[in-house]
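Re: weekly structure request thread

Next one in the queue (192 aa):
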Amino acid sequence: MPKLWDETIETHRRAVREATLDTTAALVAEHGLRSVTMSQIAEATGIGRATLYKYFPDVEAVLMAWHEREVGRHLSSLEEVRDSEVSPRARLAAVLVSYALITHESQGRHDGDLAAILHRDEHVARGERHLTEIVGELLTDAVAAGDVRDDIAPAELARYCLHALGAARSVSSKAAVRRLVEVTLSGLRPPG
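Done, posted below.
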């Protein structure tokens, strides 16, 4: 098979997969998890049901793939933010603000049933480990620069930051998110 043909098929498969993920997320947001069927997804995506089943066995599998993609996008976004700043303090602050805003914006997107399905998969645990590593490395750099306290291990401080900023899910505004980040950052300052 010519290379061009392989690329065309792979591009088509990727486009069908992405459209299926986006369509399913929109249908679940509109109708709720329990109301969405594979037939609805196929119709809304514009593909046949048989084709859809070649990609995914059921609605839950589509949602898991969508969520894994979203987690990956969030992590990539945080890495871009980290890499756009020069000083250790600025990198740490920028990543914490971005993480808190992502957390805030995700509030209310997942009802209880959907959250229970999405958050039980290994991709969530991998994402959390990767996020903790990103923040831990930033804290290590900030400790070395004298910007962050050195009496607590960076890994422990990373968990503190991420748990504290989890509260961004329940605050009412972006201004409140920024205040939450400032309080978190003040807890990281060297004593004295």
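The mean pLDDT is 89. Residues 27 and 41 are 8 Å apart (CA to CA).
Next request, please.
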